[in-house]
Amino acid sequence: MPNHVISRKRFSYAHEYAHALFDRDENIRISSTKNNAEFIEVRANAFAAAFLMPAEGISGVLRSLNKGKSSRQDQVIFDVSANSKMSVESRSAPYSQNILSRYCDYSSSF
User: Fold this and answer.
1) Side-chain half-sphere of 101: how many Cα atoms within 13 Å?
2) What is the value of pTM for the model shown?
């Protein structure tokens, strides 16, 4: 893995750590497109993602950016001409919730 970016290396290490934890009795094999949908590989990928990006940490960053809220919000609109109100659901414009990459540091080493 000498040519891979550090973030890719970290993911691979965490992926392999999952195999060490959960798959000790399995035969060693190399991941490929042929087996990437198998439970063992999907579980290792999910573990690596959760290990490297725990939900609590991601939620904190999103909150600090005022992001991560539901894109759908309930609103009440009052119709003056009919003297009544109605509940509606509004949604942000697609792709309007961009997350800044200033929190990603790809330069640090493992």
Assistant:
1) 2
2) 0.51
